[in-house]
């Protein structure tokens, strides 16, 4: 690990959190099981996000899987007998998942899923809660619920439908088959597909572009999109939307942006 990379204290050996420049990296670290997510990983994720959100150095958060075989291959089935064997256990597990998903969805900084290899079931669900999804050309996506007899909560299906639309959502679930990176891009499941050997460099450059922009503007847009895309028409919190926009105009960053434009230089935004 380079000297300038800061690693956060370990919450579980299966999750690695690092700060490298303006990027907060979260690595699902269970390559021997293709990064299948276990309870300790679900518990750690919100705490890592809290740390990154509170750190002004972090401008973008990137999630990835350890190794080159998988982003996340779903839930760790080896835990099912101990952790998901009774209705009470299932309910407790679902609370962990829902809490982590909600925290990822609403964290106040842009999030990117950097996907390499397999992205299956819960792995797809994780990526749907990020803002941007970038994958390698050798990635594969699947939600095999119909092969396992699993039921999916409406919150998860709604998120998929909001991104790929009803027809593709049905195809993904009905067939339970693996989709290529090209198919995922066509459906809108991912934003970009890049060659595998260029994935990390591409994502780093992408993050640099985002990090150079005004954090308060990005947060305002993120909150507004959440309201527009996540709620029934007529129930959008217009007061919240108005508040985050006004905060941008009242910020020092707005003054800096105008000044930098007039002086023909790059702005130095501070997020305040």
From TrEMBL:
Swiss-Prot/TrEMBL keywords: Lyase
CDD domains referenced in this protein's UniProt entry, alphabetically: crotonase-like (cd06558)
A GO MF term: lyase activity
Any one GO BP annotation for this protein: fatty acid beta-oxidation
Domain of life: Bacteria
UniProt entry tagged with the keyword Lyase: yes
Family note: Belongs to the enoyl-CoA hydratase/isomerase family.
NCBIfam families hit by this protein: PRK06127.1
Entry protein name: Enoyl-CoA hydratase/carnithine racemase
């Amino acid at each position: 690990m380079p000297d300038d990379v800061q690693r956060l204290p370990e919450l579980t050996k299966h999750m690695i959190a690092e700060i490298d420049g303006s990027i907060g990296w979260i690595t699902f670290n269970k390559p021997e099981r293709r990064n299948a997510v276990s309870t300790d990983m679900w518990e750690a994720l919100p705490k890592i996000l809290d740390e990154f959100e509170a750190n002004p150095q972090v401008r973008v958060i990137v999630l990835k899987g350890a190794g080159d075989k998988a982003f996340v291959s779903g839930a760790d089935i080896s835990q099912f007998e101990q952790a998901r064997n009774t209705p009470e256990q299932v309910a407790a597990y679902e609370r962990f998942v829902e809490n982590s998903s909600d925290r990822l969805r609403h964290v106040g900084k842009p999030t990117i899923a950097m996907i390499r290899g397999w992205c299956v079931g819960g792995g797809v669900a994780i990526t749907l809660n990020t803002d941007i999804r970038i994958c390698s050309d050798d990635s594969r996506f699947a939600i095999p619920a119909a092969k396992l007899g699993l039921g999916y909560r409406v919150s998860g299906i709604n998120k998929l439908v909001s991104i790929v639309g009803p027809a593709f959502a049905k195809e993904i679930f009905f067939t339970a088959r693996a989709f290529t990176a090209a198919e995922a891009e066509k459906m809108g499941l991912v934003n970009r597909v890049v060659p595998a050997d260029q994935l990390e460099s591409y994502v780093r450059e992408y993050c640099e572009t985002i990090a150079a922009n005004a954090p308060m503007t990005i947060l305002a847009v993120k909150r507004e999109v959440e309201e527009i895309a996540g709620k029934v028409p007529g129930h959008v919190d217009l007061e919240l939307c108005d508040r985050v926009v006004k905060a941008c105009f009242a910020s020092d960053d707005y003054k800096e942006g105008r000044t930098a434009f007039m002086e023909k230089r790059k702005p130095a935004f501070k997020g305040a």
